[in-house]
Every structure is written in structure tokens, then in C-alpha cells.
Design goal:
Number of helices of chain B: 16
CATH topology of the largest domain in chain B: Cytochrome-c3 Hydrogenase, chain B
Number of domains of chain A: 1
Oligomer: heterodimer
Number of domains of chain B: 2
Largest sheet of chain A: none
CATH superfamily of the largest domain in chain B: Cytochrome-c3 Hydrogenase, chain B
CATH class of the largest domain in chain B: Mainly Alpha
CATH architecture of the largest domain in chain B: Orthogonal Bundle
């Protein structure tokens, strides 16, 4: 019974809190630009509105057009349940669950790209091609980051990997994971979530033909992914294992907020990269994680 | 060189009796025009004038170095003629237009297809150029776009992210502006001229008013010319500032985007202070201007102009100081100077290729005979250069306005305007913010318009955008497009 309650509470927390994050980013951007900006809860309103709308389907699309976003959302929710939340631990934890997390994220990406190609539109094929080519580099970076945590703690379970105090390579890891967060969540400088220019989009162009509830599911899944990466980044870097449960919870919440403010500031002050330079920055993120790995591996023996 | 030309010479904003325009057999006109273009002339307009069942072709050329315009025409004919485009690609859209409007077929034209003719409910685009190959894919954008912009269709041939070829099909906003003018001027003519391209209201209105004055053999009072020059620069400031903001927006650089969006409104409001309309409608009228700028409002304008210019300077400085922005604009969408000259680019797009080409300087008319802003030129031909030329022109237009507002000429606002003389041809060029706005009018025996030709700068420059995209990543299309920021309705007429 307690287990069920714990699971439900976690689900509610992930599902309800995630759409807050884009609102926070937009608020920061509006503040820097001196605008009033959309309400922090805007994404909730959007989701409610989209949920009530009908779906426009291409006559060419197979059921995969709707199934793709649904499977992607389930995969992301599963990944969220694997992610420990500070002192509360994770809903499910087993040896090697970190690999499961990475595969669930890959599954979500595959399904989004699959649904995008269902329409047969040149735009969406272009977006899917971009998304998967950059993902190759982003995944290399995140696997290296996970490896460095694993070497540091000698564990392959997320709960024990993220619990102890941060290692010597925390700063490197933070920079690397933050860059991956920006790339994976289609933020500036990799992508521009606000643009209306189809030809420059990566993620947005893949969901251009989705409407109504499937689009709501995609948007909600994207916000969960953002929360997931922020939580991973904060726990990988902050020494939360040494804190009291209350302080650790506060640190986690504060950390996620700080990451969102960081994203907002970057979006306010930086232009986005040309596509041909994206691999360069992603490789830099990979190298940062690689050096964190080296520090974790060799650092303990000095 | 122009002394030896067989064409009839005239200055900008003047007229010449139709009978004095030399007429040759069409092959001779094409040959003579080609020769003048080889010697550095520039094709401003190339159009047909119906003459009974037949049509005579008219060529209007500009000799920028000599500050002179030249006109010549063919004898009336029907059927085919040797294409000028075969040797001079700046004629290619003009010849397609003549083919579409008068049925004269340019023989040897490499890409003869409709410009803006409708097929019933959409422009008859014809066949698009296609590149074959397993790796090549076609991307079609528009005519309905994601942003709130005008309709136009873009057909890309891509290999991966690289654009091999771009073909632009317009005509979705064809309203028949030229045909509406036949037999005019009508009561609605002035309003129609102000909406040929809404963001270029002052330039088109000034061109038309000047045509009417040239046909009547008179000139607007100096104070009216001064006001037109001020309104023209305000229009340039508003649009260039908006463009800088839009360019920043396209690379997701928010500081300049947010600031410029607001500043554009400030400049539009200054135009409203002058005449009550943010786009300058209702200000310019044949024979003069409708609204005066009394000393009190001139002072107010200067007071409001200063902070707007200072803020623009700051917003544009953020833009140039950000390495992330410069990296996006440098070496993207390059049009080389030789290409620009060949296809006859005008305005900031031409000046960004290093061509010194500015009607205010080359063919001064109206107030620009007395006061000039330096021509802003930048080499390079890329998006960076086009943005750079805009920011230079913002500075220079600002200086020009400050200078001019401090020393207003005295006098009447509106002069007497006699009716247009019969059988006259008048040509006017005005440097709008996009480039050269060209109006050509021919009157009949009763002094009504027999033919009125409009050439918006966009008509010359769309080809430049297509060239800029070759070899560029398709994801850079929006910044290339914005760096030209051409008019759809000005092209579609």
C-alpha cells in the first residue's frame, strides 16, 4: 500500500511540476528583455487547451503518427520514475538501471522521429535527420558522464551513483551535463524553442504537423525531459549525500531552479549556433565529461 | 561615354516628349541596350507600350557615373524578338513580364515562365527547376508561412543541408496596380501609389508625385521637397531598425530583437507626428505636401529623435559586440560584386556587395540636390555586410535628419499643378529604404496615362536572394531572406 502511495506521489510530482520549468525560463527571458512575458503557468493552460482540441491527421500517416508520441511519453515517464529524487530515492532501483534510463530516452527520441516521418513532409524528415545526428554526439557525452559517476562510486545503480558527495571532477561534469541539457532539450544555442522558422528548427519541426492531444503529450513529455536532465545535473554535481533530508530536498529544488535561470540567461544573451558548429560544441561537452571521467578514474589514486 | 549614346538622355524627375524618344527596329533596340549595359549602364525598366495591335518596347537605362538616365524604344511589332537576357541577365524578369503582359516572345530566353499571371486561383508558377540525383531532395516553403508575412513560394533543391538551387515564385498578391493606372490619374491613384508596397509608402508616393510634377513641367515648392526628404529618411530609419531587430530575432539574439522592435515603433510614431499616419500615408501629394512641420513640432521631433537614435546605436552595438551573432552572419549568403552588377541589384543589397549605387547620390532629385547623406557601402556581399550597411545607414539618416530639421527652408507647402502635358514620357527614381523605386509614365494625346510602369526595388533584388542561397545551408535561409527583406506586394503589383 505504501509502495503504491509512494509511486502515485512521485508520478503526480513529476507530471505536475514539469510544465512549470518552461514557464520559469520564459519568465527569466522576459525579465532580462524588460517585458512582462507570459504567465509562469502558460504551459498548463496550453496543455489544457490542446487536450480539448481535435486531431488533424494526414491521410498518409499510419497509426504510428499518434502512437509515436504516446510511446515516447510513456518512455519518458518511466525514465522519470528511475531518477532518484534526493533523499527520497527512486521508485524503482536495480543494478544497471542507469542503462535503462539511457535506453528509455533513446526510445523516446526514436518514437518522436518515427512519428515525424509518418507525415512524409520534407520539413519533418529534415528535422528528424537533424535530431538523430546531433543525438549521436549528445549520447556519447551523457554516457561518458554516467561512466564517470559510475567509476567514482563503483556502482551502476542511479541511487548509489548520485547519492555520495561530488567528486573532484564536479565542475567539469556540471559544464558537460549542462551543455547536454541544452542540446537534448532544444534550447539556445542548439535550437530556438521560440522560432517560427521551419527551416531552422530541429525539434519543433518534427512536431509541426501534430495537433490536439498528441501535441499536448509531446509538449508535456518535453517538459518532463527538461526536469529529468535538470534533476540529473543537480544530483550529479551537488554533494547531497552529506546533507540532511530537508537540506537535500531544498538543494535539489534550488538547484533545478538555478539551472532554469541559467538556461533563461543563456537564451537571453546568446545567439544560437549555425548548424555546422553544433557538433563542435557537443564534442566539447563530450570532452568535458571525458575529463571528468579521467579525474574520477585517476584522481582517487593520487 | 553617354555623350555618344544613341539613346535620348534625361535627368531624374524630368520628362521628354514621346516623339523625341528614338525608335529603332526591335533587334536594333536590343543591340543598342546590350551595348549600353556593357558600357556600365543599368537597366531601370523594360516594358511594352501597346500601339494598336502591336507593342513597342521601351528601355530606361541609368548611367550612374554620369548622373543621367537614357530612354529608347522599338518600333511597334508583334511576335518574337531576340532576347536581351541571353547576354544580360538583369533583363530576365523584365522580359518574362513583357512576354506575360504583351505576348512578345524573347527568343533565346533561358527561363521563360509567368511572373505573376494567375491560373484561376493561384499564380501560374509553371515548372520549377529540378536537380536530379539520389541524394537530392526538394523542399517547398510557402505560400503560407509560419510567420505573419506576405505569401510567396520558395522551392529549394537540396543535397542534405546544402542548397543547390532556389527558385522563388511570387504573384500571390497581384492586384493589377499598373492596369488600374491606365487612363489615369484617377481619384484613387494617389492612395493606390501609397500602397504599392505599404512599408515603402513615402518613396512610392514621392515617385508618383514627382512624375505628375515632371509631366506638368513644374516642381513642388522647396519646403515640400524638404518634408518629403525627411519622411523618406524616417521611413528608412524605421525599416532598417526593424530589420536589425528581425535579423537578431532569427538567430535568437533577444537583446537587440526586443529593443529594435520597440524602436521601430518610435520612428513610425515620428512619421505620425509629421503627418498623422505611422506609414506616412496622406503626406505626399502631387504638387506638394499636405501637412506642414511647424517649428514647435520640428523641435518636438528633434527631441524625440535624439533618444531613439541613441537607443538604436546601443541596441545595434550589442549586436555587433556579440561574437555569437557575428559568427552567424559572416560568410553566409554571399553575393559577389560581379554577380550583383550582372543581375542589377539595387539599394542596400547592392551597396553590401561594394557597389556604390544610391539614387540620392547618383541621380539626385528634389531636396537631395541640396543635401545628401554619404553613401553607405560595405564589401563582402554576405549577411554581415547587408546588416552592416543598414546600421551605417541608420547613423547617416539620423545625422541627415538632425541637420535638416535644424535648418528648414521657408515657403509654400503646395504649389500650383497644371495638368499633365500630352504625349510626354516622365521618369522618376527615388531611393527608398530597399533601393531604387522607379516610376515611368507616358501620357496620351489628352494628357491621361497611356502607360504607367512601376518598378519596386524588390523586382531587381529577389534574384539576388536566390543567388545568395546557392551553397548555403538551408537553415540559414531565414537570415539570408531577412537580410534582403524584400517586398512581395511591391513585386506582385
Amino acid at each position: 500500500m505504501m509502495l503504491m502511495l509512494d509511486l502515485i506521489l512521485r508520478l503526480v510530482l513529476w507530471l505536475l511540476l514539469a510544465p512549470l520549468l518552461p514557464g520559469v525560463i520564459n519568465r527569466v527571458k522576459a525579465w532580462v528583455a524588460g517585458r512582462r512575458g507570459p504567465p509562469v503557468l502558460q504551459l498548463y493552460y496550453d496543455l489544457a487547451r490542446l487536450w480539448q482540441k481535435g486531431v488533424v491527421m494526414s491521410t498518409l500517416a499510419s497509426p504510428g503518427f499518434v502512437a509515436g508520441p504516446a510511446v515516447a511519453w510513456v518512455a519518458l515517464t518511466g525514465a522519470a520514475l528511475l531518477m532518484p529524487l534526493g533523499p527520497a530515492g527512486a521508485a524503482f532501483s536495480f543494478r544497471g538501471d542507469v542503462l535503462m534510463l539511457i535506453y528509455l530516452l533513446a526510445l523516446a527520441r526514436f518514437c518522436t522521429a518515427w512519428a515525424a516521418m509518418e507525415t512524409g513532409s520534407a520539413f519533418e524528415g529534415m528535422g528528424a535527420a537533424r535530431e538523430v545526428s546531433y543525438a549521436v554526439l549528445a549520447e556519447a557525452a551523457i554516457i561518458t558522464a554516467v561512466l564517470s559517476l559510475s567509476v567514482q562510486t563503483g556502482s551502476v545503480s542511479l541511487v548509489s551513483m548520485l547519492a555520495p558527495s561530488a567528486g573532484a571532477g564536479a565542475v567539469l561534469l556540471a559544464a558537460g551535463l549542462f551543455t547536454v541539457l541544452l542540446a537534448e532539450n532544444c534550447r539556445v544555442p542548439f535550437d530556438d524553442p521560440n522560432t517560427h522558422l521551419e527551416l531552422t528548427m530541429i525539434h519543433e519541426v518534427m512536431v509541426l504537423d501534430h495537433s490536439g492531444p498528441p501535441l499536448a503529450v509531446i509538449l508535456h513529455g518535453a517538459s518532463m525531459k527538461l526536469l529529468l536532465f535538470a534533476v540529473l545535473l543537480v544530483q550529479a554535481v551537488l554533494p547531497m549525500g552529506d546533507m540532511s533530508p530537508l537540506a537535500a530536498t531544498g538543494a535539489l529544488a534550488g538547484g533545478v531552479l538555478a539551472v532554469m535561470i541559467g538556461v533563461g540567461l543563456i537564451e537571453s544573451l546568446l545567439a544560437r549556433l549555425a548548424f555546422r558548429r553544433v557538433p563542435l560544441l557537443l564534442t566539447t561537452a563530450f570532452l568535458l565529461c571525458l575529463f571528468a571521467l579521467l579525474v574520477a578514474w585517476k584522481g582517487n589514486r593520487v | 561615354m553617354s555623350a555618344s549614346t544613341p539613346f535620348a538622355l534625361l535627368a531624374n524627375a524630368t520628362s521628354i516628349p514621346w516623339a523625341e524618344v528614338p525608335a529603332w527596329p526591335v533587334a536594333e533596340l536590343v543591340r543598342a541596350t546590350a551595348e549600353e549595359l556593357n558600357r556600365g549602364g543599368r537597366l531601370c525598366a523594360w516594358f511594352g507600350v501597346p500601339e494598336g495591335e502591336a507593342t513597342c518596347l521601351v528601355a530606361v537605362l541609368a548611367f550612374d557615373a554620369d548622373n543621367t538616365l537614357a530612354v529608347g524604344r522599338s518600333l511597334p511589332f508583334t511576335g518574337n524578338y531576340p532576347a536581351l537576357t541571353a547576354t544580360h541577365s538583369q533583363a530576365h524578369l523584365f522580359e518574362r513580364e513583357v512576354w506575360e503582359q504583351h505576348g512578345l516572345t524573347p527568343e533565346g530566353h533561358p527561363w521563360l515562365k509567368p511572373v505573376r499571371r494567375t491560373n484561376g486561383d493561384a499564380p501560374a508558377n509553371g515548372e520549377f527547376f529540378r536537380v536530379d540525383g539520389r541524394e537530392v531532395h526538394e523542399v517547398a516553403v510557402g505560400p503560407v508561412h509560419a510567420g505573419v508575412i506576405e505569401p510567396g513560394h520558395f522551392r529549394f533543391q537540396c543535397a542534405g543541408e546544402e542548397v543547390l538551387h532556389l527558385e522563388i515564385a511570387l504573384g500571390y498578391q497581384h492586384r493589377g496596380a499598373e492596369t488600374a493606372l491606365a487612363g489615369g490619374p484617377h481619384r484613387a491613384t494617389m492612395s493606390q501609389m501609397e500602397t504599392v508596397a505599404g512599408d515603402t509608402t513615402v518613396a512610392h508616393a514621392t515617385a508618383h508625385a514627382t512624375i505628375m510634377e515632371a509631366l506638368a513641367g513644374t516642381e513642388a515648392p522647396l519646403r515640400a521637397q524638404w518634408l518629403r526628404a525627411i519622411a523618406l529618411e524616417l521611413e528608412r530609419l524605421a525599416n532598417h531598425t526593424g530589420d536589425m531587430g528581425a535579423l537578431a530575432g532569427d538567430v535568437a539574439f533577444l537583446p537587440t530583437q526586443s529593443a529594435c522592435g520597440k524602436l521601430r515603433g518610435d520612428y513610425l510614431n515620428l512619421t505620425a507626428l509629421l503627418c498623422g499616419n505611422r506609414f506616412g500615408r496622406g503626406l505626399v501629394r502631387p504638387g506638394g505636401c499636405r501637412h506642414d512641420l511647424e517649428p514647435a513640432r520640428a523641435v518636438q521631433m528633434l527631441e524625440r529623435l535624439a533618444p531613439a537614435l541613441a537607443d538604436t546605436e546601443q541596441a545595434v552595438a550589442w549586436f555587433w559586440d556579440a561574437a555569437s551573432v557575428r559568427a552567424r552572419f559572416e560568410n553566409v549568403g554571399t553575393v559577389f560584386a560581379a554577380q550583383a552588377a550582372e543581375i542589377g541589384l539595387v539599394g542596400p543589397a547592392a551597396r553590401a556587395c561594394g557597389l556604390v549605387r544610391d539614387v540620392r547620390y547618383d541621380h539626385p532629385a528634389g531636396w537631395h540636390r541640396f543635401a545628401q547623406a554619404p553613401v553607405a557601402v560595405w564589401p563582402g556581399g554576405d549577411v554581415f555586410a547587408r546588416a552592416r550597411v543598414r546600421s551605417l545607414e541608420i547613423q547617416r539618416s539620423g545625422d541627415f535628419l538632425r541637420e535638416q530639421l535644424a535648418t528648414p527652408p521657408e515657403g509654400e507647402l503646395h504649389g500650383e499643378l497644371p495638368p499633365p502635358s500630352p504625349d510626354m514620357l516622365a521618369v522618376t527614381l527615388v531611393e527608398g529604404w530597399r533601393g531604387e523605386v522607379c516610376h515611368v509614365a507616358l501620357t496620351d494625346a489628352a494628357g491621361r496615362f497611356r502607360r504607367y510602369k512601376l518598378v519596386d526595388p524588390s523586382f531587381h533584388n529577389w534574384t539576388g536572394l536566390a543567388l545568395a542561397l546557392r551553397g548555403t545551408a538551408i537553415s540559414d535561409f531565414p537570415i539570408c531572406n531577412k537580410s534582403f527583406n524584400l517586398s512581395y506586394c511591391g513585386f506582385d503589383l
